[in-house]
Amino acid sequence: MSELKQEHFDKLLECCRSILAVPHHDRKSPWIGKSTRAWLTSVQKGQKTAIIDANPNDFCAEALDRG
Predict the structure, then answer these.
(1) How far, in Å, CA of 49 to CA of 67, rounded?
(2) pTM of the model
């Protein structure tokens, strides 16, 4: 198992405190991701054959978040 670097932990803690300092109703989720459609398209990009046999149009076009 790798060792925790103090400077990385301190930066993570700074980010968390910064997020928590904003009132909940004004927060934008820090965990915004891609849409599932964009993700599927990026996975398939440059491939000669489909890695995942699915139609991108069947997937959500909106970005997902974990908020």
Answers:
(1) 35
(2) 0.45
Percent of the chain residues topping a pLDDT of 90: 1
Three-state DSSP class for residue 49: coil
Distance CA 64, CA 29 (A): 10
Strand partners, 16: none
DSSP string covering 13-39: HHHHHHHHHS-GGGPPPTT---BHHHH
Q: In angstroms, rounded to a whole number, what is the distance separating the alpha carbons of residues 47 and 16? A: 38
Contact 35, 61 (CB under 8 A): yes
Task: Say yes or no to pLDDT of 1 above 60.
Answer: no
Contact yes or no for 51/44 (Cβ under 8 A):
yes
Q: What is the mean pLDDT of the chain?
A: 80
